[in-house]
Amino acid sequence: MLILIFNFTGRVLSTASTNGVGSDAYFNGIQDILPIDGGREVLVADLLNHCIRKVDTQTRVVSTFAGICGRAVPLPDKSSLALKTVLEFPQKIIANEEEDTFYYLLHDRVVKHDILSG
């Protein structure tokens, strides 16, 4: 099933990173989308906002799933005291929903995000 989400939610011709309902939400460089939860939600790689957004396809609510939109920030990593991986320029999203794990292709690496541990 193909769902065209950007006809009913979000503005793409802007440089803002606001969450919201429908056209109150702003995206900046949509790079990839990934349906999850049986298509009820869609993850969006918001390239120039350095974050992963989540769109509820029923309520049209756009929220931040990973990162802080508008800023490249380290992803949480409770397993290591090493330098944090910065979520910047996300280009592709891959999901393993059975393990609650997502992989993001960033501009120069792939990172794993275990949503149960942060």
From TrEMBL:
InterPro entries in UniProt: 6-blade_b-propeller_TolB-like
Signal peptide segment: 1-16
Keyword entries, A-Z: Signal
Protein name: Uncharacterized protein
Organism: Bugula neritina
